[in-house]
Amino acid sequence: MSSRRSRSRQSGSSRITDDQIRDLVTKLQQLLPEIRERRPDKESAARVLQETCNYIRNLHREVDDLSERLSELLTTTDTAQAAIIRNLLMQ
Amino acid sequence: MASVISNPVGNMNSDRIKRKKKRKSLIKESQQNQSQNWKSEAQQQIYSSKLIQALSQVSLNSPSPSAPRGGRAVREAADRVLAVAAKGRTRWSRAILTSRIKLKFRKRKRARASPAVTAALVTGSNRAKKSRVSILRLKSKSLPAVQRKVKVLGGLVPGCRKQPLPVILEEATDYIAALEMQVRAMSALAELLSGGSAGSSSSAPPPSS
Description:
The structure holds two protein chains of two kinds.
Chain A lengths: L1 H10 L6 H14 L13 H32 L3 H11 L1
Chain B lengths: L1 H33 L6 H17 L12 H16 L5 H15 L3 H19 L16 H13 L8 H39 L6
Helix pairs in contact in B: 2-3, 2-7, 3-4, 5-6
């Protein structure tokens, strides 16, 4: 019991096992479109983290572009709200 | 005498094992129920309708949008609705909802400074020699390359700047799925607005009386 406590204090984590970390990294890798197909153990952790950062940045940029486009569409078309409501009611 | 004592102990053990198994299966179930399914059609429709409500309240038609330009206001509304859709179960969603209140009183300069810092960190790590680190080595968590990337990732996911590695990884998986849904919903909405207003009347089936 005391050895487990000292080990957790060393690593600084709250009793999270390394297997759990490995599972999380694998799960993360499954989400990334770039390196989804490769064997999970073949990818280095640094690569997965790098791809994750890039992917999140790409998604942020896409959301920004879509926001710009939406703001333009909403301001230019006055009948936009009517069109939205109509389309929503018909679905 | 010995048999009388040993029997209750034996029963307790089997009961404890049964209870443990039940608890483990319950925990697994609750874990599955907790994480949202960001890929479901229903979730996307819920988000889309909430987004439309929020956007109709955003005053885009004001003569002079002061601090938030139109696009920025839409982005903030979209993020806020996304955080609401997460039902506050994740750290990033709670951080988004609370940061809006903080930013109103804090100066904007601090928010503008952080992207520059993260950009410098990324370029530095790219130029350094990439050492092949297997996932097994991740447990050391002391390698500078991995440390830097973890910090960058923590900066990208809202509310995870000072969190330990497993928390960041878990938040990132949920955040990525949520962002993908946000992109899907917003692009569908943009398609609706740009192409739908022209052809909606023709595509609508006439109600048969």
